[in-house]
Amino acid sequence: MNNSPKKLEKIYEHMKVELLETTVENLIISDDKKYINYAPSYQRNYRWLENKATNLIETVLMHGIVPALIVIKKEKE
Q: Alpha helix locations (H) across 19-66?
């Protein structure tokens, strides 16, 4: 993908960035969950090794700290 700096500036100028601390449970039970696209077109292919995926699931189940997630929120239609 060829994204020139000018093109990226135009895309980013309309973005609102906020830091939000929440739980995975809140993401799952949120009223907005019907608006969450869990397989967006820009998502790369699955890249996790089995042991890494298992570690992430265990961390979530034990209420551990999970690395940052990037979520793009679109306006409700």
A: 24-29, 50-61
CB within 8 Å of 29: residues ≥ 6 apart = none
Range 58-62, long-range pairs (CB < 8 A, 24+ positions): 60/24
Average pLDDT, the chain: 76
pLDDT of residue 1: 52
* 56 pLDDT more than 60: yes
Q: Is residue 73 part of a domain?
A: no
Domain of 47, in residue numbers = 5-61
Global pTM exceeds 0.85: no
Number of structural domains found in the chain? 1
Contact status, residue 40 vs residue 33, Cβ threshold 8 Å? no
